[in-house]
Amino acid sequence: MLTVKASARTSAGRRVAFLDEDSVTLAVDAAWEWFRRDPNARMAKLVLGDEWEQSERKTIEAALAPWLGGPTGQEVKLESTLVRAWESNGGREAYGRITVGGHGRSDVVEPEPSLALDAPTVDLCKKWETEWPRLRTMGAHVPAGTWDRSAQARLGLFGVRRGSTLTFPPPVDSTRKQWAPLPRRGTIDSFTVVSKGAGPSEYHPWSEAVGDYVVAVANLEGARVAAPMVAGTVVTGVAIDAVVEPVLRRLYAEAGRWRYGIKLRQV
Amino acid sequence: MTRFGTREESARELFAEAAREAFESVDKGIDASRVDEAWIGSLAMGGYQLGNLGPFAVQAAGLDGVPARRVENACASSGYALRDAWLAIKSGTVDVALVGGLEKMNDLERAHQRYWLGVSGDTEWERTAGLTFPGTYALMARRHMHEYGTTEDHLASVAEKNHANGAKNPKAQFQKVVTRQKIRQSPYVCSPLRLFDCCSTTDGASALVLAGDDVVPKLTDAPVWIRGSGAASDALAVYERASMTRLEATIDASRMAYKQAGVDASMIDLAEVHDCFTIAELLAIEDLGFARKGEGGPFVDDGRAGVGAEIAVNASGGLKAKGHPLGATGAAQAYEVFLQLRGQAGSRQVPGAEVALTHNVGGSGASCAVHVYGRSP
């Protein structure tokens, strides 16, 4: 089992561990995760923030409908929701609050990590998407075990601090790793717009959904990170020295399993 | 070397062809039994003959029984094979060596091909960020533009020059002049790199005969001498390096080679540099010391890197036009230098060439081998 220490703080002070897609499914996952953990939970309320477009609301409501009245234990297929949300938002990453509740309580799930070390742990290995195309890898293949060993860095958005230097990814010789969260702000050192078909095949489904995508190298107060930027960055535009923040997102699927990691979003 | 391009022949046949020409180029003749050992560069693209490629190649070359091994450092494989053989000869344990490289890239389906191109980069953190090699070099190009004002037109000038040179090379994959307009109008692969900023996938093989000082007089009266050899490594991932606008491995390897050869950059008449992407040639021109940092673009655009100009860079057409069969490229660069320093390069001959250099890079700069050659020792 893979344990993850990434979390989102909710309005009620509850920490909800979440798994994300490009925002829509991120929040949906978070809500699902919350209810999955509480056997007595009954989802009685679902309120979407005003920032969601009407079409996105419908997508999310439809996705969560099976859980109203209690978790059914069934996974919800969400790939199509990503595409629809992206299209409905004019090619920009959808982003907003989802309030879920039951038993007299309600929490706003903010789809961002709080980088809290004391957050609940989540089993990412359960996140299988059986209908995801089984593509032949084109260079982004990392064995599952190797990937899991780097979960703290990838999913917790943590680097390793040595004195005043923050290193990401963590150096292999860090026998006594002093984990430190990546700074929440940085600037772009360079970027490229990857045209359709020019990325690793693992990225093709995402590319099919959102078109060309941006990969940037960002300097997060000394720690340099290479990461894709969230969907819609091509539309909104990007430039060297632009301010960005690291966010946790689904990257791609390999052998039916989601791979989560850092994306960058312009602030 | 074989003609580069899309070849129907098998890897075995291609290497046999390259080795045959290498032996036939020995002026006074050589018997295959004189070869002591062989070093063969190859990525073994597609996994075809991934194991025991050394014996596979020497058998194809008619050198049964000769100890051989595959040397692998991505696109710098046969540059390193050349260095390893040179070191063995210098150590006195080998008198005559066969150095070569081979790659069959075009008989793979596209996705399989790209996987094998991808495996030489930093898989764990860079590939997983959605990058392939055009992307990593595009990051370097964008930063170079930002820091030094390099333009897409500068990049296009590299492609234009190398295609013009390739048009004069009967062994080049692309033997056509390409206009700057066509280059600038080609689609982006990873911006700011367009289709014509990228080299192609290529089949081909190359081979060289190396001999120790004592043996040379028995083989030829017009040898080409390796005067210096340098090599260096750097971080696999571009973002892990101190700078995205220079390749430290190139700087370190060339420093070593220049020192051994007793020359500096100003003494080089022609250079075959690793232009897998146009930005890579600009970085090489700067990092090898032919132009000051940031001035590579204007250097090429002003015609200073043409045949007969200040220094002839990629007179063969480079990887861009001649083609880039990964493992065969390093030895093919040496093959061009061999022709040039012996005055056998035909219509692309660099006039009065005395000192030459080859620059062979693996991945996006993680490994590099630089050699300096002369008409005299």
How would you characterize the overall build of this protein?
The complex is a heterodimer of chains A (267) and B (377). Chain A contains seven helices and 13 strands. With 267 residues, chain A is of the alpha+beta class. In chain A, a hairpin with a 5-residue loop joins strand 1 (8-9) and strand 2. In chain A, helix 2 runs antiparallel to helix 3 (79-88). The longest helix of chain A is centred in the first third of the chain and has 14 residues, at 24-37. Chain A is globular. Mean pLDDT of chain A is 63; it is low at 1-28, 39-45, 69-86 and 100-135. Chain B has 377 residues and is α/β, with parallel strands linked by helices. Chain B has helices spanning 11-24, 53-60, 77-91, 110-118, 133-148, 152-166, 180-185, 216-219, 248-261, 278-287, 296-301, 318-322, 329-341, and strands at 37-41, 68-71, 96-103, 188-190, 193-194, 204-211, 225-233, 270-272, 312-313, 355-362, 367-374. A five-stranded mixed β-sheet of chain B has the order 7-11-10-8-9. The A-B interface holds A 135-142, 146, 150, 169, 189-195, 198-203, 213, 215, 217, 224-228, 240, 251, 259, 261 and B 111-112, 114-115, 117-119, 121, 123-132, 134-135, 138-140, 142-143, 146, 187-193, 237-240, 244.
Considering the chains and any ligands shown, give keywords for the structure:
heterodimer, A: 267 residues, alpha+beta, five-stranded antiparallel beta sheet, three-stranded antiparallel beta sheet, 13 strands, disordered N terminus, B: 377 residues, alpha/beta, five-stranded mixed beta sheet, four-stranded mixed beta sheet, 11 strands
